Each structure stands twice: as C-alpha cells, then as structure tokens.
Amino acid sequence: MIDSVKLLSLAVAAPEHVIYQSDAAETAARLFSSRFSDFGHLARVFGNAGIYKRHTARPLSWFEQPHAWHDRMEAYTEVAGQLFVEVTNKALYRAGLKPRDIDCIVTVSSTGFATPSLEARFAAEMGFRSDIERVPIFGLGCAAGVSGFGIATRMAKGRPGATVLFVSIELCSLAFRLDELTRPNIIATALFGDGAGACILRAGEGGLAEVESTGEHLFPNTLGIMGWKIDDIGFGIILEQSLPPFAEKYLGEAVAGILARSDLKMADIDRFICHPGGAKVLTAIESSLSLEPGSLDHERDVLSDYGNMSSPTVLFVLERAIIAGLPKRSAMIAMGPGFAASCVTLKALA
User: Fold this and answer.
1) Closest to 200 in 3D by CA, of 250, 234, 164, 248
2) Which residues on adjacent β-strands are paired with residue 18?
C-alpha cells in the first residue's frame, strides 16, 4: 500500500520594499488622473480593496518611470531568485532537511520567466543534487498556488519516498504599466503585490497535514475573464469586471464537483482556505460556498497585509490556518486564468 502524501513544511516570504495603500493611491492619482477621465471613479478601489500595504520587487519610485521587457525581466530574475533561495531555505529548515534531500522541484510563476529556470540558476548555490528533476510551470496564474501544489503532490505520490519541493513565486508589480490607460490596469495598481511560498511534500509518515485529494475544473468559454496580453512593453492585465459575480454563481458547483470525484461533500469540509483575489471576490466566495459572511478571516488578513500576490497568496493563508490549528478536514481553493478553479483537501494529523 502506498503511503499518503504529507505536507512536511511550509514557508512564505516577500520582497523588502513596502508600499502602503495610501501612498499607492496618491502616486496613481498623480500619474493617471490628468490622462484618464474615469480615474476619479476608479480611484475608490484603493480604499475599498481591503488592503493596508503590499510588498514589491522595486521601491515605489521605480514604478513612476517607464520600463520595457529588459528592465522588467532583469528585476524578475534578480528578486525572484532571492525569494526562491529564501523561501526554499526556510522550508528546508522547518522540515529538518538539506537541499541534497530534494528529489524534484515544481516551480510555478506567471509574472516573469527566466531561462535557465530559477531552480537551475540556483542549483549549485543551494546544493541540489545533479540528478534532481525540475518541473517549471508558467501560465496557471492565481490558481497555481493550489494547482501547482496538486501537481507536486501527484509527483510525490507517483514516486514513493521521493521528496518534492513546491515553490510559488510571483512579482505581480513588475507588470505595472504607465501607458495602459484602462480600467484593469488602474485596478491592478490598487490590488497586486509580490511574494513567494514553498512547501515540501513526501509520501510517508509525519508532517503537518495529509494531502487527501486534488482536482481542477476548467470552465468553458471563459478565456477572457483573466490573463495577460503581451506586447513590446510587457504584460498587460486582462481582468473582467464580471469575475466576482461569476465566482458567486459558479464556484460552489465547481468545487462540489471536484470534491465528489473523491467521494466528498461540501459538508465534509470544516474550513475552506481560499485565495483572496480581492475584497469583492472573497464576499462572492463566501456566498457561493454558503459560508457565513466574514468567515474567511485569514484571507482578509493576508489581503490587508500583502495584497493579491497571485499564486503564493493561498500559501500565506494556509500558513495562518496551520498556526491557528487545522480542523479535521480543510480545502484549499483558488481560481485563475482558463478560467479555472483548483481544489486540494487536507486532513489534519493527530
């Protein structure tokens, strides 16, 4: 009988630069109000986003100048590399492991790219073995914190005894555009931050929690809800206004379907651990999952302290849930480009 996969450790990290929401609002007004007629209406999002501060790859002054691909990817490689080393070392320390103990690395990121990939760039510095298996993944967006966790779990399950490192890194702030006079770009300046998370997984004994099930749901005809458009300057955000009502209407049914594949029901979940995409999205999730308003408290706290960091955000929420004490069964949920929903269920270990 194959042992179930266990979460051995979890760690999170964020860049050193901090931008307070009040300063972001003032800077955005200075940069956009005279050039974008609807800015006054959209500016309310800075106060309504439920965000106090965010961490970013570069200081606020950097974003007041135009930047093209070279600047953005140079910053990505530098800061994402720093975060990769930091968060991996934290996760290894908490698991009582050394870099040479890692057999496979699954790395997710959709806000930048580096070739060779991050884990290859830092393999020698970190001390990974030369036979390590690398799985870099791009394009899963905000859902990747859960879907990537699921992929890493399946890698661990398919290789009994193998130790799998899962790393999620996003530098959303590097996609900020001075030239994009659009509603999604203004909202992005009020919402997104940067961060990283790492988990170590292995089939066997011990750990923080047992990974019980993984699953995804791809919604048809929804490609335009969220994603990137790419041009000579960099990434340009696609973010439809319909996202919160879409989540409220369809997420619950999708999650119920994912759970049913593992013979689980919504009532079997004691705590949902959700990616906090935004204040309105959290309200929509609570409604769709039939939760009490305000029950996603860890999610709102993470959103306030870090903003929406895309894929690693749910790992920040998971860390707080672990510290508070996981209930018998919890479910991590995130939504992202596709449009898609991902779900992983965890069972607390006695």
Assistant:
1) 164
2) 55
pLDDT surpassing 60 at residue 198: yes
- 274 as an active site residue: the answer is no
Question: How large a percentage of the chain has pLDDT more than 70?
Answer: 99
209 and 348 in contact (C-beta within 8 Å)? yes
Scan for tokens 């130790």, then name that residue: 163
- Is residue 274 a contact partner of residue 282, using CB atoms and an 8 Å limit? yes
pLDDT tens-digit map of 49-94: 899 999 999 999 999 898 888 899 999 999 999 999 999 999 999 9
pLDDT of residue 251: 94
Helices 183-191/21-32 angle, 10° precision: 160
What's CA 179's distance to the chain center, in Å?
A: 26
Give the chain as a 3 state SS string: CCCCEEEEEEEEECCCEEEEHHHHHHHHHHHHCCCCCCHHHHCHHHHHCCCCEEEECCCHHHHHCCCCHHHHHHHHHHHHHHHHHHHHHHHHHHHCCCHHHCCEEEEECCCCCCCCCHHHHCHHHHCCCCCCEEEEECCCHHHHHHHHHHHHHHHHHHCCCCEEEEEEEEEHHHHCCCCCCCHHHHHHHHHECEEEEEEEEEECCCCCEEEEEEEEEECCCCCCCEEEEECCCCEEEEECCCHHHHHHHHHHHHHHHHHHCCCCCHHHCCEEEECCCCHHHHHHHHHHCCCCCCCCHHHHHHHHHHCECCCCHHHHHHHHHHHHCCCCEEEEEEEECCCEEEEEEEEECC
Q: pTM (2 decimals)?
A: 0.94
Which residue in 187, 200, 216 sits closest to 308, CA to CA?
187
Mark 78-101 as b/e (b = at least 16 C-beta within 10 Å): ebbbbbbbbbbebbbeebebebeb
Which residue in the block uniquely carries the two structure tokens 């989540």? 247
Active-site position among 142, 172, 274, 343: 142
pLDDT computed for residue 244 by the predictor: 86
